[in-house]
Design brief:
single chain, 348 residues, alpha+beta, nine-stranded mixed beta sheet, three-stranded antiparallel beta sheet, 9 helices, binds adenosine-5'-diphosphate, binds magnesium ion, ApbE, magnesium, flavoprotein
């Protein structure tokens, strides 16, 4: 009897050990597929977990490149370039995607009272932003070009699905919102492929799908605007959220120690000089976060907090020149300041 009992114990123990081995090796296999690629004028990273993760990522990259081809102002045959070439002349029929992005962009031009204005392109070109030959233009040149900056001159025709710019030489640039749209489209591709956990990073525009594999929220770092890329001022935990930041630290050039960055204030024609140096928007859809972050950056703390508090389901984290951090009420208690020199201000 004793021998049989011992054998039984050994067998049961062995089964347990085998089960533990199967369980742990299975768990180890739970890893993300990660791909990096260049598009939309920036480097992007997609990270997905699921049976069809590879397929989902392949399809996503194709979708992002399609969006770049349709909406890049740097591609001669993009739909945006065609609209610009036909300015003051005739309407341009565009795809559903481009029509949708322009429509959304105009919504955020209006909400920000023109701080975000996609007709800013002639001024952006003057500064040479986004290509070689960046320079400080003369104030006369700026004054001249500012006359044709006005998003109210964009005419949309829903039936024809066409876009028309009223005045010759007017040009639009959806660079301040297209990455957000692209991220939302990637998320849709992931969902269609049954992916439940993914991290979409399009040039720093973050969109998270679900939780991490282990069920915990994603931790997203908000760039310290005073440090180089990858050093954070604070972190936030999110599930199914978009986290988009506009800052002066990504694209800029310096002349005699003065920094000229790529976010232009449409009322002056010069890089924005509000009290904000980093504007982060947290929202469900990334197109909303991207459309708002550029405008909010220009509007400054007081106006921006007021505006974002009024928009349901959208929050903001603003970092100022004097290293203060302001957040909207929905973000209170949901972030951790990691940069020691930053001071949290809970009221304006
Ligand atoms: P990033 O492209 O670095 O993520 P943003 O989303 O803030 O940053 O967009 C900045 C881009 O938007 C600029 O490169 C420029 O093409 C365009 N832009 C600059 N100023 C404005 C503005 N006031 N309104 C709309 N678009 C702008
Ligand atoms: Mg933006």
């Amino acid at each position: 009897m004793l021998i049989i009992d011992n054998i039984l114990i050994i067998i049961i123990s062995l089964i347990f050990i085998i089960l533990i081995i199967i369980f742990t090796t299975r768990n180890n296999k739970k890893s993300y597929i990660v791909r990096e690629f260049y598009s939309l004028g920036t480097s992007n990273q997609l990270k997905a977990y699921g049976k069809k993760a590879s397929k989902a990522i392949e399809e996503s990259i194709i979708k992002v490149c399609e969006i770049d081809n349709k909406m890049s102002v740097f591609k001669n045959d993009s739909e945006i370039s065609k609209i610009n070439k036909n300015a003051g002349n005739k309407p341009q029929i565009v795809s559903n995607d481009t029509y949708y992005v322009i429509q959304k962009a105009i919504k955020y031009c209006t909400l920000s009272e023109g701080a975000f204005d996609i007709t800013i392109r002639p001024i952006v070109s003057l500064w040479g932003i986004g290509k070689e030959g960046q320079q400080v233009p003369s104030s006369n040149e700026i004054k001249e070009k500012l006359k044709i900056v006005n998003y109210k001159d964009i005419v949309l025709d829903k039936d024809d699905r066409s876009i028309f710019l009223k005045n010759k030489k007017q040009e639009i640039d959806v660079g301040g919102i297209a990455k957000g749209f692209a991220a939302d489209e990637v998320k849709n591709v992931m969902i269609k492929n049954g992916i439940k956990s993914a991290l979409i990073n399009l040039g720093g525009n973050i969109l998270t799908l679900g939780t991490k594999i282990d069920g915990t929220p994603w931790s997203v770092g908000i760039q310290d605007p005073f440090k180089t890329r990858g050093e954070f001022a604070l972190t936030i935990s999110v599930i199914n959220k978009s986290v988009v930041t506009s800052g002066n630290y990504e694209r800029y050039f310096e002349v005699e120690g003065k920094r000229f960055h790529h976010i232009i204030n449409p009322s002056t024609g010069y890089p924005s000089e509000s009290d904000i140096v980093g504007a982060t928007i947290i929202s469900d859809n990334s197109i909303d976060g991207d459309g708002l972050s550029t405008g909010v950056y220009i509007m400054g703390v007081e106006k921006s907090i007021k505006l974002i508090e009024e928009i349901e389901g959208v929050d903001a984290i603003l970092i100022t020149k004097s290293k203060e951090i302001y957040v909207t009420s929905g973000m209170e208690g949901k972030f951790t300041i990691t940069g020691q020199e930053f001071v949290y201000k809970n009221r304006i």
